[in-house]
């Protein structure tokens, strides 16, 4: 009798699962929400109008989205199946995300067509926990007209960018109206996540990294050189105000015609080329350049991914929906609204390039993109990032105000390195304990004869 009841119970569960309501989060920035809802409607029709999807609109500010997710995850049970995530959050929340490889056949996801940095961000260990909705990457904008005016070519290294920026800045300041109001290079050095982004890519372009083989290496010679270079930029070819600049502050300065170069994200392209701006039709784009003393062309990875909660009762259907939302046809459609595809092959698509010609400049940037160390620090990433941007902002500020030597910078970075290694040690310890608990319960579930998804 007990066996019959169990069979009936699972039969009812199986039958009810055939008509499900999925809940998915989405940002409302730009066309994002509109495009997602249209894609969801298409998926629902594709499945025969069997399922329903409820869209939960996220707060506009990313930090508020993160706080909301953290609140949900800490409860260890919540009624949301699919979560849209910033690339830097995937490592933070990976313990709460489903392993998508359980739901896809190897050929269904074109992993080899993703940019390498995108591919790295999809995984937590051996588990695939996210699929890219669209990607993003730090780039350098420059004034084509000013480089032509002074017969300068687009720089191929940081040193050449510095030299070109300083020369044009000094020449333009001969105009009394531009004296001390025109700058060679503007970027973002505010004590916030954007500085972690900027420092990560500059460090990479100087041949260093924040983490190497599981250990913090932010006190390397490359890190000292990268920090000193950023400080020299602020003192000589930029404005001290960049110490408080976010993306929009830098865009405002560049857009008003008061700078030669700017570091920013691709989103700025269409805004800069609005006919009402002082720089419309006068700008070009290059990747983050390498240093002459080592490193490579770079650009920190940005973008948003789709994930499935491991607490979802409908993981199979949720996985099918995000596979559709992140598919190549959907990314091709989204590219019309300047959302960068995560697939390499789409940057050779004639239709896409005709619609968004500046995408051609971004291929190399994405090919060489570097990721923030969110996977290494996992749930402790925000703490690690805060240590990074506060320290780097402090060093840059001290250098501008009083000037500090390379050895003094090294001491500051040594202290930061110790803090990051302590955070890594704590992260690894927590991860090990969590894995032991998970393996224990997995054995219990297997012993009782259940599958893990039957008890979620």
Protein architecture, described:
The structure is a single chain. By secondary structure, the protein is an alpha+beta fold. The protein has two domains: 2-135 and 303-372, Periplasmic binding protein-like II (D-Maltodextrin-Binding Protein, domain 2, 3-Layer(aba) Sandwich); 139-299 and 379-416, Periplasmic binding protein-like II (D-Maltodextrin-Binding Protein, domain 2, 3-Layer(aba) Sandwich). The protein contains 18 helices and 13 strands. The chain has helices at 2-16, 32-46, 62-74, 90-93, 116-122, 144-149, 158-172, 193-205, 221-236, 247-255, 268-272, 315-325, 328-335, 350-355, 363-367, 374-377, 381-402, 406-447; strands spanning 21-26, 52-57, 82-86, 123-124, 127-128, 131-137, 139-143, 183-186, 211-212, 215-216, 259-264, 283-287, 301-308. The strands form five sheets. It has a four-stranded mixed β-sheet with strand order 8-11-7-12. A hairpin with a 2-residue loop joins strand 9 and strand 10 (215-216). The two termini are 25 Å apart. The model is unreliable at 5-17 (pLDDT under 50).
């Amino acid at each position: 009798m007990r066996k019959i009841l169990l069979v009936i119970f699972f039969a009812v569960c199986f039958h009810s699962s055939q008509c499900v309501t999925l809940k998915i989060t989405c940002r409302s920035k730009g066309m994002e929400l509109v495009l997602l809802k249209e894609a969801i409607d298409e998926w629902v029709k594709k499945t025969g109008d069997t399922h329903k999807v409820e869209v939960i609109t996220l707060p506009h500010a990313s930090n508020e989205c993160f706080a909301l997710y953290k609140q949900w995850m800490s409860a260890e049970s919540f009624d949301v199946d699919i979560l849209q995530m910033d690339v830097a959050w995937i490592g933070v929340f990976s313990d709460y995300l489903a392993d998508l490889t359980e739901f896809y056949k190897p050929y269904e996801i074109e992993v080899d067509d993703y940019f390498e940095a995108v591919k790295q961000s999809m995984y937590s260990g051996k588990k695939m926990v996210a699929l890219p909705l669209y990607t993003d990457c730090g780039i350098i904008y420059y004034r084509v007209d000013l480089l032509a005016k002074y017969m300068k070519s687009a720089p191929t290294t940081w040193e050449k960018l510095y030299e070109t920026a300083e020369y044009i800045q000094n020449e333009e300041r001969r105009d009394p109206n531009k004296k001390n109001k025109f700058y060679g290079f503007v970027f973002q050095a505010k004590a916030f996540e954007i500085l972690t982004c900027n420092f990560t890519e500059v460090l990479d372009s100087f041949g260093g990294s924040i983490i190497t083989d599981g250990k913090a290496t932010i006190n390397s010679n490359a890190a000292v050189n990268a920090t000193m270079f950023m400080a020299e930029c602020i003192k000589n070819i930029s404005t001290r105000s960049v110490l408080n600049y976010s993306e929009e502050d830098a865009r405002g300065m560049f857009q008003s015609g008061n700078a030669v170069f700017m570091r920013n994200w691709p989103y700025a392209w269409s805004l800069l080329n609005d006919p009402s701006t002082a720089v419309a039709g006068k700008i070009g784009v290059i990747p983050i350049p390498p240093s002459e003393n080592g490193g490579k062309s770079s650009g920190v990875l940005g973008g948003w991914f789709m994930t499935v909660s491991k607490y979802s009762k409908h993981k199979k259907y949720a996985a099918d929906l995000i596979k559709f939302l992140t598919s190549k046809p959907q990314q091709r459609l989204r590219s019309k609204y300047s959302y960068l595809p995560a697939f390499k092959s789409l940057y050779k698509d004639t239709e896409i390039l005709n619609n968004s010609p500046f995408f051609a400049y971004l291929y190399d940037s994405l090919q060489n993109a570097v990721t923030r160390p969110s996977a290494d620090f996992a749930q402790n990433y925000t703490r690690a990032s805060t240590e990074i941007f506060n320290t780097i902002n402090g060093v840059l500020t001290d250098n501008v105000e009083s000037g500090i030597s390379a050895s003094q910078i090294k001491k500051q970075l040594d202290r930061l390195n110790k803090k990051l290694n302590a955070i890594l040690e704590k992260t690894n310890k927590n991860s090990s304990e969590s894995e032991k608990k998970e393996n224990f319960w997995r054995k219990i579930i297997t012993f009782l004869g259940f599958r893990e998804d039957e008890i979620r």
